[in-house]
Amino acid sequence: MAITAVRIDGRLIHGQVANLWTPSLGATRIMVVDDKVSQSDIEKSGLRMACPAGTKLSVIPVEKAAENILDGRYDSQKVFLVVKKPDVLLELVNKGVPITAINVGNMSQTPETKHVNKSINVTEKDIADFKVLADKGVKLTNQMVPGDKQNDFMELLKDL
């Protein structure tokens, strides 16, 4: 299986992802899956600069990610899949991508969000998407950095 880990992080590639998660996972490729970001040369350029040296990077739309993963294109690699929101992962799961666990990292605050903890804010749609993912058997956790305690994310949502 090519997917080593899956993380939701609104910042995509930044210090925690590049310097802590990627080496601790032994990831050889970071795959950013986002329809809008994959179409922006400026955003892709920024992600390339943030990607750790020696780590491959893919910035691709959802459809292409599902196709590549299901075709076994990355089977010889350790892929760290990073997205901004849960709906992308739900779409991948619905397309048959075998995602068994998701680490929910940073999700920024907006006027539409509810506060979960100091770094996670969710909309009603996010909550609904997380529930569907959990119902499909996906384990949802929250762990900001590799050394932190892993929390059951669905337990955190129960307080909302």
TrEMBL record:
PROSITE patterns in alphabetical order: PTS_EIIB_TYPE_4
UniProt-listed SUPFAM superfamilies: PTS IIb component
Residue intervals of the PTS EIIB type-4 domain: 1-160
Keywords for this protein: Cytoplasm, Kinase, Phosphotransferase system, Sugar transport, Transferase, Transport
Membrane spanning stretches: none
Major localization listed first in the record, in broad terms: cytoplasm
Name of the protein: PTS sugar transporter subunit IIB
Source organism: Vagococcus proximus
